[in-house]
Amino acid sequence: MGRRLKWALGILAVLVPAGAIVWAVCFSDLLAVRAVEVSGLDRLAREEVVRASGVATGTPMVWLDTAEIGRRVAGIRRVEEVGVERRWPGTVRIAVRERTPVLTTRISDRYGLVDRFGVVLEVRQVRPPFPALVVPRLSPESAETRTGLAVIASLPRDFSARVDEIQVPSPEGVRLVLRDGRAVVWGGAERAEEKLRILSRLLGHRGRTFDVSAPEVVSVR
């Protein structure tokens, strides 16, 4: 056998298996998507997430752009966080964290469900059982909205259940209206723990308005 023939056969011995591997990974059904698993769902339907992901059964796993899939799923309004991973040989896993409402807000003659970032998740005819955020303009970028969200996040659940409205005409002018009709002048979002401690004592006294905006000097009227 000539030297050139041996050399050619040696190259073929390397290229043929390599080509077979490339074909199997990139073009065949051997390592293609067979299943899409979705976890973390509550209100969202699996079909909606899979449709938004754009992942089609039969797509070679190697061609999947997990970052792009995540961006597409994150485009669903109710999705707060998403993670995407390949599970060889043929499974795509999508882990979703849904947005959850913490407040409601009036939108014309309806009520919007608002999450902790100020995103309106949906609009309903009947007011949901959450404190109502009253601001000049509802927007995740507005100072008043951010202040209202910071205040509700600082309140323990048992106390926030007693709050009917969080009025924020300005970042330093927060006022809480309780479900029993009494009002709390809260001031800014800072020093929440201190304000709550003082307020828990004041609410045992007679009065309609409790001012804890400056914890050093409180008043009951």
TrEMBL record:
InterPro entries: Cell_div_FtsQ/DivIB_C (IPR005548), FtsQ_DivIB (IPR050487), POTRA (IPR034746), POTRA_FtsQ_type (IPR013685). This is FtsQ-type POTRA domain-containing protein. It comes from the Bacteria. Keywords: Cell cycle, Cell division, Cell membrane, Membrane, Transmembrane, Transmembrane helix. Its main location: membrane. The lineage of its organism: Bacteria, Bacillati, Actinomycetota, Actinomycetes, Streptosporangiales. Residues 31-99 form the POTRA domain. The keyword Translocase does not apply. PANTHER family: CELL DIVISION PROTEIN DIVIB (PTHR37820), CELL DIVISION PROTEIN FTSQ (PTHR37820:SF1). GO terms for biological process: cell division. GO terms for cellular component: plasma membrane. It is found in: Membrane. It comes from Bailinhaonella thermotolerans.
